[in-house]
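forwarding from the other thread:

> can someone predict this with magnesium ion?

sure thing
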Amino acid sequence: MPLVAPFRTSFGTETARDVLLVRVVTPDAEGWGECVAMSEPLYSPEYVDGAAEVIRRFLLPALPGSLGANDVARALEPIKGHRMAKAALETAILDAQLRAAGESFGQFLGAARTRVPCGVSVGIMDSVPQLLDAVAGYLDEGYVRIKLKIEPGWDVEPVRAVRERFGDDVLLQVDANAAYALTDARHLARLDPFDLLLIEQPLANDDLVQHAALAPRLKTPICLDESIESAEHAAAAIALGSCSIVNIKPGRIGGYLEARRIHDLCRANGVAVWCGGMLETGLGRAANVALAALPGFTLPGDTSGSRRYYATDVTEPFELVDGHLEVPAGPGLGVEPIPSVLDEVTTATEWITL
Ligand code: NPQ
Ligand code: MG
């Protein structure tokens, strides 16, 4: 699916999204799960063709003939990693189960509100004026929080420019996608004066210890994204002092059930969480918005409206109202792919009968 504009991060520039959708058909209902893996392994080791292969070759054969969503993770445990692939499968099974039971994702997960405040992730731009125009547009649309993607050479100046133009009241945070090293601590401390909500994933994915060493050297709170692949990682990060905030992306950690566990763990430890985004279509977005309505999600997420990324979404578009998205209330995800749109963007399908 073409993106409305190129999205540049410290790991590359994306102009289109290669989306893998899992559709589960049971005797009672059908369900959808969106795999958030990118086409290339730049954010994490997973990539979309690899996810399709691991689902086909290892995950589906590991499932017993009849099971509920609660049993999926245990059945797939012998297969290491591949959490985005596992999440897509578990989500589709959970969706089918909830649609059959007439229960929404929000109800099932424990949503505490009917709408969630939305932030937006703003890519690296060619110039500061171009960035300021983009941020102005998002603030006009009602976004309540701005996240700037940063990398060495695009950090202090864009943050300063956004603060100078839009003032100190704008909720502002940055995301490095692992682009810095501990030796950059002094440079990153130059962000301290700008009163950022957080700095997301400054160091490498597997550097929990170095994040713990960085934390006391910054006034800006550290939030981890790529580093947290499970509730165990979250517990380790909290114990080490690697972060004081966690970005929860269900795909990265293997699904919505694990997401709820991390939410519960963080809440019990006074660690704030928020819901990240992976440029989901309306299907993945619906589940994320339901998750973001849980009580521990105390910071606005990257739960943007559909048109932030797509001119035409595969579902009815999610649209901001007063800076918020409504939590879908219908059974399961509460949204459906529009058949004509889905046909239009589908490049391949494969049916596997268990
Ligand atoms: C993040 N997302 O928080 C990610 C990273 C990201 C909204 O900033 C294609 C598919 C392009 C997934 C670019 C946001 C992507 C992508 C960035 C995920 O780190
Ligand atoms: Mg991130």
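Residues 275 and 288 are 7 Å apart (CA to CA). thats all i got for now
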